[in-house]
Structures are given as structure tokens and as C-alpha cells.
Specification:
Oligomer: single chain
Helix content: 40-55%
Radius of gyration: 28 Å
Number of helices: 13
Largest sheet: 7 strands, mixed
Number of strands: 9
Mean pLDDT: 78
Shape: elongated
Order of helices and strands: EHEHEHEHEEHEHHEEHHHHHH
Low-confidence stretches: 1-7, 269-282, 413-455
Structural class: alpha/beta
Distance between the termini: 28 Å
Length: 466
């Protein structure tokens, strides 16, 4: 795979080469805990399906999460009997920990996992990994909530699943439809950079991985699946839901404060060479325009309230100037953070100074309108003044947005045309550290060093046991 990328960014996606090498293209991980009954039928069925339908070399890895029954014996026997099966034993529980350990140590370019109960129809496996092999997508998930999916499960689990995904959409603005389906895949080059940022080691691991990937602008492919609920599932719904909600709060806080170094996950714009000849591509215009309109509407209400308050003890021109000054400072601060995604104190004074220049232009427009009104009418009604001010503010608002985007916060966009090496990922609108070079320390978010050290130890113990 290509490696010609700037420091701290992922390379452009490319189709994996079709070769006869023994190194597997796909590594399917089955995390298990005390699954002595279901493990062997699952592995045999999965192996038969891959042998029959998958056109590349593959591996099946059993990730044992500290099982206390005969699961280790069953897994070791399957490893001896089937060449494509590997067994990894971890002495600590946690599905996320198991996936992190095995995926980090795997030499396959495409990594996947599925639950041992095989609730998801295996016919969705090839459509799941095909976009990753082709280079089209970075991650892929099975979705039970897509319109064309066929799902058989009880009303309780259906309600919990849909409620959880609504929470993700409402709190973290997640756009993927199903975070909890145990049927996912990821490219190894993406996993290498993404996994150190994922803190959770349990059931929330999937959700955290997807949210970070989506916020970084990575492409997530969704596959509708046929899914039948396992009535004997050992998942503790209440405990899992509580941990998931804690995870949602933690990730939401980290995204709000901008503490995640998601620049490390940046992809070049357009893996098609024709895209790299495109210049001056507008970025985030729709989102910025929407945010500006919301802030502008609230600022206008705030301005009118201030004007009415100041008008009680001052003339129209003084009241207008004071109200516009206060609302302009608030408007610049709100647009800085909410519309253009600037976090932290860096450049705040300069932005406010430039915002005051924009304020001066707005003051000239509104004051000129009031002067024209007073020249045309003696003692105009208060409602007439407000109508004139609203019209003048609408004109000033359009000009303000253009000046904010092109001048005040223009440094938040690349000065050069948007090309393969300069583009920022969609949704990455928070204040982020500079791209991490090879000699820079690793990210400390979520105690990354602790997880990295642990997974190194897990990989070492796994290799030594083999």
C-alpha cells in the first residue's frame, strides 16, 4: 500500500493487490468468553463459508477473553485441526481489549470481527469487506436498522437498540445507523492510527471507534444484514447500557474540548487522480452557513432586546450603537466557536478586533438607515424603527458572513487550493494540535500510553505462547 503521505496523515486508499501470497488478506476475529458450546460450530461454519465464497487468503482468530470453562481447549483443538485458525488467549476480560490486541498484532490488511453466535447472516461478509479491499472505504459495519435489513428479535432489544442509536445521533451527531451490531471491519492502516485513540476496552469499543472515525472524516460503509437474535446471549443489558452512556458522555466531552488529535486520521481529498486537479473547492460552506444563520437569529433577538432596554434612557443612535457593540462581541465569540469551529484562546483577541471592524460596517449600515428614517419622518414610531433596523441588519448579516468566512476566520481554512495533500476531513472543525511527526510523543488522550503498553504486553505474551 502507498505510504507517500505527509506526517500524521493516512495514505490515499488503494485497492489491495490480488496475489497468491500466503499472507491473509482478511483476518476475522471471534471474541469469546465461556463459549465452549457455540465456539466449534461457529468456527466450522465460518471456515466452510470462507473456503467456499471468499476469493482471497484468510485467517480466523479466536480471541479468548479469560474464559474459565473449556473454551481454551476447544479453541486449541480447532487451531490444530484447521490451518487457517489461530488462537489468542488474554487474561483480562473485555471485547474491546481483545479486538485491540489481535488487530494490532495481525499482518492482514483487512481486519474484521463477528460475534460467536453468528446472528448475522454470513452472506453479508463479502459485501462487508469488499469496499475495504477495493480501497473505497475505511471501515464497514453491518446494520440491522437499514431499511432493507431483515431482523428477528424481541421488542425489548429492538427498543434498546433504536433508543441507543437515537442517543448517539442526538448527543454525538452520529450519522451511522447501527453502532452495536457485532459485524464490523476496518483496514489495517486505519486501525494502526485509530485504535490508540480508542479508550474503551469493553462493549463501547465499537461505538467509540466509529464516532472518532466519522468525526475524522473517514468513510464508513454500511451493509444491510439479515440478523436473528440469540435468545441465549450472555450480555448484561443494564450494565452494558450504563457503561455505554458513560462512554457517550466521555466522548462528547472530549469532542467538545477538542482534545482528540484526529488530524492523524486525515485522508487526502479524492483518491481518484482527477480529483487532485480540482482547485478552490469550498469546504463546510453548508454547515457554516447554517450555524451562522442560527447564531445570527439569536444575535438579532439579543440585539433588539438590548436596543429596547437602552432606548429607555438613551437616544436611538446611542441605543443602537451600544446594543450593536455588545451583540457584536457576543456574535463574534459565538461564530468563532460554533460556526467556524475555533477552540482555545489562540487568536481570540485578533478575531474580536476584526469582528469590531465588521461591527463598524454594520453600525454604518444601521445608523445610516436610522438617520435616513429620522430625516424622512419626525418622531417615528418605535415599531417603525425596529422594522428599519431589521431590514438593515439583514443586509449587514449577509456582508458579515462573507467577511467572517473570507477575512476574520479565513485562516481556519487552507490558503492553498484544496488538493490531495492539503484537505481537511469533513467534520474536523475543532481546534487540533499540529500534525504529529515521527519523533513526536504519542497521544495521551484516554491514557493511550497505558493501552499501548498493555497491548504490547498482550501481543508479546501471545507470540511467546505460540
Amino acid at each position: 500500500m502507498r505510504t507517500d503521505s505527509s506526517p500524521g496523515t493516512l495514505p490515499a486508499r488503494e485497492h489491495l493487490p490480488a496475489s497468491g501470497a500466503r499472507t491473509p488478506v482478511l483476518d476475522v476475529v471471534i471474541p469469546v468468553y465461556n463459549e465452549e458450546t457455540d465456539l466449534q460450530p461457529c468456527v466450522l461454519r465460518l471456515h466452510e463459508h470462507l473456503e467456499r465464497t471468499f476469493p482471497y487468503a484468510f485467517r480466523i482468530t479466536i480471541a479468548d477473553n479469560a474464559s474459565t470453562d473449556t473454551t481454551p481447549e476447544v479453541a486449541a483443538r480447532l487451531e490444530r485441526q484447521i490451518p487457517q485458525v489461530r488462537y489468542c488467549r488474554l487474561e483480562q476480560k473485555g471485547r474491546g481489549r481483545a479486538l485491540r490486541t489481535v488487530w494490532s498484532a495481525s499482518d492482514a490488511p483487512v481486519l474484521a470481527y463477528m460475534d460467536v453466535d453468528l446472528s448475522t447472516d454470513l452472506n453479508a461478509l463479502l459485501p462487508l469487506v469488499a469496499p475495504l479491499i477495493s480501497g473505497h472505504s475505511d471501515l464497514a459495519i453491518g446494520s440491522r436498522l437499514a431499511r432493507s435489513s431483515r431482523v428477528v428479535r424481541g421488542p425489548k432489544r429492538e427498543f434498546i437498540s433504536r433508543t441507543y442509536n437515537l442517543i448517539l445521533r442526538g448527543s454525538l451527531q452520529a450519522r451511522f445507523s447501527d453502532a452495536q451490531c457485532g459485524f464490523k471491519a476496518i483496514r489495517a492502516d486505519v486501525a494502526k492510527v485509530l485504535l490508540p485513540l480508542v479508550e474503551d476496552t469493553g462493549w463501547f469499543f465499537d461505538t467509540e471507534m466509529l464516532v472518532l472515525a466519522e468525526r475524522a472524516g473517514l468513510r464508513i460503509h454500511e451493509v444491510p444484514v439479515d440478523w436473528v437474535d440469540d435468545p441465549d446471549s450472555t450480555v448484561h443489558i443494564a450494565k452494558t447500557a450504563t457503561e455505554d452512556l458513560k462512554g457517550v458522555w466521555r466522548i462528547g466531552k472530549a469532542l467538545t474540548t477538542g482534545s482528540l488529535p484526529l488530524d492523524r486520521l486525515a485522508r487526502p481529498f479524492g483518491d481518484d487522480p482527477r480529483d487532485r486537479d480540482i482547485t478552490d473547492v469550498p469546504r463546510g460552506l453548508a454547515r457554516q452557513l447554517l450555524g451562522f444563520c442560527v447564531v445570527g437569529g439569536l444575535s438579532t433577538l439579543f440585539y433588539l432586546a438590548l436596543y429596547s432596554l437602552f432606548r429607555e434612557f438613551a437616544g436611538s443612535q446611542t441605543a443602537n450603537a451600544l446594543a450593536l457593540l455588545v451583540s457584536a462581541v457576543a456574535n463574534t465569540a459565538a461564530n468563532r466557536r460554533l460556526t467556524f469551529g475555533v477552540r482555545g484562546r489562540g487568536g481570540a483577541v485578533r478575531h474580536q478586533a476584526q469582528g469590531l471592524v465588521v461591527f463598524g460596517i454594520g453600525l454604518a449600515l444601521t445608523s445610516g438607515s436610522l438617520a435616513a428614517l429620522n430625516a424622512a419622518t419626525t418622531n417615528p414610531a418605535h415599531s417603525t424603527e425596529l422594522t428599519v433596523l431589521i431590514a438593515a441588519n439583514l443586509a449587514a448579516t449577509v456582508l458579515r458572513f462573507l467577511l467572517f468566512r473570507a477575512w476574520v476566520f479565513g485562516d481556519q481554512r487552507d490558503d492553498s487550493p484544496m488538493t490531495a495533500t492539503t484537505a481537511r476531513p469533513a467534520g474536523a472543525h475543532y481546534d487540533r494540535p499540529a500534525p504529529v511527526r515521527s519523533e513526536a510523543p504519542r497521544a495521551t488522550y484516554g491514557d493511550t500510553d497505558r493501552f499501548s503498553g498493555r497491548q504490547d504486553a498482550d501481543r508479546s505474551s501471545w507470540r511467546n505462547s505460540r
